[in-house]
Amino acid sequence: WLTDTDVGSSGINAEYGEGVQQALLKLLEGTLVTIPERLIPSRKLRSEPIQIDTTNILFIASGAFAGIEKIVRNRKVKKSVGFGSPISKDAAVLDQKKGKDNFEDQLKINDNFLKEIDAEDLVNYGIIPEFVGRMPLCVSLMSLDRDALVTILTQPKNSIVAQYKYMLTLDNSDLVFTDDALDAIAEMAIKKRTGARGLRSILENVLMDIMYEVPGSDITQVTITREVVEKQSEPHYKRKENVQSEKKAAAVTV
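RE: above sequence
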């Protein structure tokens, strides 16, 4: 994992970042690395250090590289002055006031720029050319959209939604999320610019009062809708009395 300090893009740590890259360059080219004894957890007794040959090791480097899309943008979008000069649609949107309303559009445009990243952009960002030359492939990851955030909420085995559902089952209550509610949570995370890391805090804020009301009560089911997530209405509770009355009504109709 390459941080901005390792790359030296800040300017202040440029010399330090170049030194880190020179050390990593030796590993990429292939060398014998001596691992000190204190870094080997499986060896409790004193023994000789281990030497590893990095010639046949596949290295995968990754990093956030914050702001590199601006470098790609400056290379791809040529600004011109005068009447009738061509204006890029992507550049026009990015030049607007960066508010929360068009933040999702900005992410999509930045993703389009990152698809066209090349070695020149990495060098301008602060990576030495020798290091870039040893990395022949460069792949960019797309930003998380609403559908991806909903998948993170629901699909993993130990997802956030599954955790809260299990917590309510301990009090003999079911937690139900509508599709609109999940979409609203994902949209709120995008507007707050927190991404997947902010999903838990949003759910915690939505379910805070519910986690205190359900234990020791007669609530058997809690339904969360978009209006509940947006603080426009209260959660929909189903209680034991309502369940018994529904059973009696069903028995009478039969």
